[in-house]
Amino acid sequence: MTEQEKVKQPANPIPDWVEESLFENLLKDNIPNFQCIKKFEVNPGAAAGENYATVILRINVDVELQDGSSKSLSYMLKTGHEQDMLKDMMGSHDVFAVEKGMYDDIVPAFEKLYADVGVAVKFGPNSFVLPTDQPYILLENLTPRGFKNVNRLEGMDQIHVECVLKKLAQWHAASAVYHEINGPFEEKYCHAYYREECKPMMKIMSEQITKIFTECAKTYKHYEEYGEHLVPPEDPIELVFRMVKVNPNEFNVLNHGDCWSNNFMFQYDAFGAIKETYVIDYQIPRYGTPAQDLYYFLVSSTNYEVKLKKFDYFIKFYHDNLSENLRLLKYTKPIPKLRDIHIMLYKYGMFGVQTAIGVMGVVLLDPTEKANLANFMGEDGDADDFKKLMFTNDRYRKHIEVLLPWFYNRGALHFS
Q1: Contact assessment for residue 103 and residue 127, using Cβ atoms and an 8 Å cutoff
Q2: How far apart are CA 81 and CA 53, in angstroms?
Q3: DSSP summary character for residue 244
Q4: Please, which residues bridge with residue 127 across strands?
Q5: What is the dihedral of CA 390, 295, 281, 189, to 10 degrees?
Q6: Which residue has better confidence, 378 or 140?
Q7: Nearest to residue 383, comparing CAs of 368, 393, 391, 373?
Q8: Cα–Cα distance between 8 and 272 in angstroms, integer?
Q9: β-sheet with 34-44: strand ranges across
């Protein structure tokens, strides 16, 4: 059986190890007057196309309290893929060890920096510990508290974008101050997939995606203007690895690394105004230029009406909030000027191109059972069909046909 066939084997979405008994101590420690579990229910927590890297489960628990009353609780459990090929792919970067460290250590440390200056900042959901050696992340389910995602197919409007950029500026500022106080972050938080051992996997992915994308791009409007510049004259992964080397003379932050719409959740008041914005999925942080997070988010997850029309305004909005938070947290190094952020965006424009060709295609694709990591990374007929669907549907075409000339005119497609 080939590796590709292994991936396509149907798998039980509920791992055998996810059992009621795992949760007893957690509930005893966190629920006052806990008596016993009355109901334990596990269901898939994400539809096809809404999550790729991990398995998401929703766990609903009804407990009986000592006075005879009952209480309902809900959790989101993230665990690994059962298929061998996907385990190997994800195993080259231990996303569970990284994300657990982020939830246990980094996120609380960043929140404490704000608490120490008298400002309450909460970045995301609470996390919990289970007595198991299996790879997992257990989080509170935010849905009962009224949190929800925006519709990824429509993209975020200006108000939602501003809320995300405000939170992102708080995160980046805290990371810069943390680095200044404590020194470099642990290695596991610094590189994401941009490590030598991941390079072969990345090259395979790049070759497959580039092949299909360049075929589809020939049908886009204005292709004749920029088409010859879409593929760099050297291996694009080697080019990217040079680009991600950290320049200590620039302003650097701990990038979230996966800033697309489904990784932000919003809580609304009775009138529909946004009360709170949370960030989830801290699996692939990377220390370096904030241009990475800015491009990733603004290219992949904004709606068509504001994506380019408001781009420079959004950078100014981000910079205003970044500067305010750096001053609040008593950052002692020079605060980057607005033009410094713009210079980074021009210098690291390839992050934007990568996002447009990669994650934006996933974000804008209608829900389909074909949307899985195997088809995104694979090279058989089903995988090719999936990628063609990504790059030829009308929604993606509308976005990419304005983005590619924009990147071209900013110099992001000029590799030599």
Answers
A1: yes
A2: 8
A3: T
A4: 139
A5: 120
A6: 140
A7: 373
A8: 42
A9: 34-44, 55-65, 70-79, 136-140, 127-128
Who's near 321: CB < 8 A, 6+ residues apart? 165, 166, 169, 170
Tell me the residue length of the chain: 416
Beta pairing partners, 36? 64
Identity of the amino acid at 357: I
SS3 57: strand
Q: Tokens for 79, please give them.
A: 């665990």
Helix (H) or strand (E) holding 406: helix 394-410
**Mean pLDDT of all residues in the chain?**
90
The reply to whether the predicted model has a pTM over 0.70 is: yes
Contact 65, 71 (CB under 8 A): yes
Q: CA-to-CA distance for 374 and 58, rounded, in angstroms?
A: 23
Cross-sheet strand order for the sheet of 264-268: 147-148, 264-268, 274-279
CA distances from 98 to 92, 192, 283 (A): 12, 9, 6
Lowest mean pLDDT segment, chosen from 20-29, 74-83, 194-203, 317-326: 74-83
Across the range 200-207, mean pLDDT stands at: 87
Please list the alpha-helical segments (H only) found in 235-349: 236-243, 291-300, 304-307, 311-328, 338-347
Q: Are 345 and 294 in contact (CB under 8 A)?
A: yes
Which of 86, 45, 115 is closest to 281 using CA atoms? 45
Spatial contact of 267 and 274, defined as CB atoms under 8 Å apart: yes
Could you identify the residue written with the tokens 């809320």? 163
Q: Are 395 and 403 in contact (CB under 8 A)?
A: no
* Interatomic CA distance for residues 338 and 320, integer angstroms: 8
Nearest to 251 by CA among 295, 294, 287, 298: 287
Q: How many CB atoms lie within 10 A of CB 352?
A: 25
Q: Which two tokens stand for residue 400?
A: 């990419």
Q: How many angstroms separate the CA atoms of 180 and 42, rounded? A: 43
CA 40 to chain centre: 30
Strands annotated E in 153-304: 253-255, 264-268, 274-279, 286-288
